[in-house]
Sequence to fold (755 residues):
Amino acid sequence: METATRGLETGSPPGPGPTDVPGGTAAAPGTAAPSAASGTAAPSGTAAPSGTAAPAGAAVAPTKIACRNLTKVFGGRPERVLEFLERGGTKEEAQARFGNAVGVHGVDLDIRAGETFVLMGLSGSGKSTLLRLLNLLHKPTAGQVIVDDIDLTSLSKRELLRVRREKFSGMVFQQFAILPHRTVLDNVRFGLEVQGVPLAEQRRRAGEAIELVGLAGWEGNVPAELSGGMQQRVGLARSLAVDADVLLMDEAFSALDPLIRREMQDELVELQARMNKTIVFVTHDLDEALKLGDRIAIMRAGRVVQMAGAEEIITAPADDYVEAFVAGVDRTGVLTARSIMQPVKATALLSDGPHTALTKMRRFGLSGLLVLDRERRVQGYVSSEAVVAQLRDAEAGQDRLDARRITQALSVALDTSLGELITAASGISEPIAVVDAAGRLRGVVVKGAILAALASESSDEGNAEGVATDAA
Amino acid sequence: MPLERVPLAAWIENLVSYIQVTYASGFDGFADGVKFVIDGLLGLLQTVPPLALIVVLAALVTWKAGWRLGLFTVAGLFLIHNIELWTPFLQTLALVVTAQVLIIVVGVPLGILAASSDLADRIMRPILDFMQTMPAFVYLIPAVMFFGIGLVPGVVATFIFSIPPLVRLVNLGIRQVPVDLVEAADAFGTTRLQKLVKVQVPLALPTMMAGINQSIMLNLSMVVIAGMIGARGLGAEVLRGIQRIQVGQGFEAGLAVVILAIVLDRLTASFAGGRKAAKKEQA
Fold:
């Protein structure tokens, strides 16, 4: 959908072609100006659908799982450790003083229905412990886990069993955790078997889940006959067969080789688009987190140090720890035009004369201007050379910018990824206009900013430098 | 000032005679039950023609452990029949099987209990050590006092001596089930029983079978000792050979024990190895 808003005509070559179009025949320029206009009309045509997809305006989904001051202390006599922590002690101090490991310390989370929530951190940061607290595989030392308004910590064993069966689709594990003595089909129907679902229905639903993960035809094989990736598909199918709202995944793809891992990630994204489950995904791999997560919580020493969307994690790391995490990440898939664009310093209106345009360029030190209509829709780009040429051209009118000298400008949507921007920016020198769903100019991206975003630790600084070099 | 000698022996004697008197009816009932089972089994084995039994046993062995051992079984059993030790052989087989059933029926649940509770494990461990290291002869005397002479005290002494490795290996096997498999079971909402039956026992089975194998071997080693308290069978034959300094006769009976041991060992080992939890290696 975004690609629709992106391109103006690709037919005429980019660059300063029309700068010196000789003569004033009406035909050639006459086609140039409307083409620019029709190009910008396209985004306004797509305004309605883009509007519905705009993430910023979407209503926030209800909370599915809430953690309140959740703490897990391992080992004996956790009360004294808890007290020590409450007085402000750190995890390390507690470990040294009492010998108890603190898995999770004072975590508050609201995981929304239908989102993919990623828990990320290095090993020992408590992310897997936190995951296991969500379905009470670990008993919290303090705090609450609330799923659909049920406080799990207050439940009896029997009630907890029921919640695990009804609310959770089991769990997907790093080492697959499928039963070696059972066939694929028998593994996948495990959760249903535990629930006492009739055998025929177990088989049917397990068969559907197997189909869903692409293992049809392997039902009768045992795990030893499958590759790692296929075994994990069995693990995933086992959870999907249960078909409860919440899917917990613990480093589910970490044991797979990179190619298979990427494939599984893509499939999970695709499955999630159809199923709309609440997925809590634990990983230590930032690229994976950014790819899968609607929101990401970064954990360190049992605490959540930052919780945000992918882009915010990259562009505004909360502290040095997160920043160090983010340093090595592939930014091209995460950063978007919105995060690297700069405010527009000056634009020309279609009604501006060449003198006005030149003055604006001089004042802001720019080599060209984006040309807008009254609704701030991008109509094209005019370079200083083109304006100067118009002024020297005796035959041209001087009260308005000469439509023939306005070249088309590349405009992209706000959520165009950095990767796509790089492709789009190759071969052109003018700034790229960033437009909203209605086609109105929101900012510009210059090549310098793209490079800076790729290179910099914090793209904010990068932007600042980029602006100085060139802008519209 | 010399300390007074601790009257340990007197205490134990008092304890044993107290138990003997207090629970006499219980012991008698137990003895009758075991005797009934052994006699019934023996009677059954004796009604089957030796040739038929040999064929059945050899077929079972061939199926589970291959034709080589099957051939060995046929040859070995024919030899036993040929040297006229068939009846003592059957008596020993009945004793071993009865004791083994008792060992499994008690040992497996105890092992499961030890695996599911650290407290139970801590309590059982020293008791198992005690049972296993105390010289087996020592059990014979109270066994005779409680159950009289014959096969029953033999079964009891064998039971006490042979059960520890099974309990230990069942415990170990269940504790060795990978944590994530147990977590997976829990995450899907299994009850304790479901988890045990569907996950833990199947995965612990190879180790449990090794425990059964170990206890059978100890069980057989007790056969001769049980012969000392009047348990009929190959043990009694060995003892008779020793007492009369008839080396050849003693060896014959000993050889029959060895043949039985080899067959039972390989057979149970094949059960243990048959369900290898194969893990495919990834390139």
